[in-house]
Amino acid sequence: MKKFLTKLLCGATALLAVSAAHAGAIDDAVKRGTLKVGMDPTYMPFEMTNKRGQIIGFEVDLLKAMAKSMGVKLELVSTAYDGIIPALMTNKFDMIGSGMTLTQERNLRLNFSEPFIVVGQTLLIRKELADKVKSYKDLNDPQYRLTSKIGTTGEIVARKLMSKAQYHGYDNEPEAVLDVVNGKADAFIYDAPYNVVAVNKFGNGKLEFLDKPFTYEPLAFGLKKGDYDSINYINNFLHQIHEDGTYDRIHDKWFKDTAWLKDME
Fold first, then answer.
1. Which positions fall inside the Ionotropic glutamate receptor C-terminal domain (predicted)?
2. Of 118, 145, 149, 199, which is most buried with the most CB atoms under 10 A?
3. Mean pLDDT rounded to a whole number for the chain
4. pTM assigned to the model
């Protein structure tokens, strides 16, 4: 009996040691004094680089409020979107905050917070196609050329729902949009908030915006599997800012006010 109790105590001690070693991203950030977030700053108005080289946006402000609630500094780690999950797995940062859609495929690899906003895919098409193309279904044809940003749900949707069309993706959104503006592609597929801005910023009067979303896209913060303590903290933070007015203030700054556009290149 004594030997059994000794083994039990040793096992409990080892378990506590493992738990302490894997306390979670939020605890690690608090101990470090810095919350490190992986982000590809090309997604207007969520995260983008202004003309002074600063990363700004709706999601950036949410993360600033989160870091403040933890009593730490925010460090944004600029990372290409198609490599952002591997970078998290190799400890380049604590979490992903980069306009990431919570998909089932990604959820097999990551834990996600509750969504902080829900968007949907929309279309920017060549103006000449306005009479022919009324929805994404009309683009499911070999005669059309589609584009989006590589590694995003825009690419996934293009390949899944418009598989008969030709597809060529780009590493960043503006390059893909300009492919449509310049007549090299027929449609750009992307989240509605980005396309609202892009049609005016890059369109040059040559784009038609089909603004009715045709997918359901909850955006959330991504963390390593099993980090439930951090998920719990982030979810409670999101509930708090929804109730105290912080979320509405940040949301309106980026989605109802266009003053920030003057700060862009």
1. 34-257
2. 149
3. 92
4. 0.84
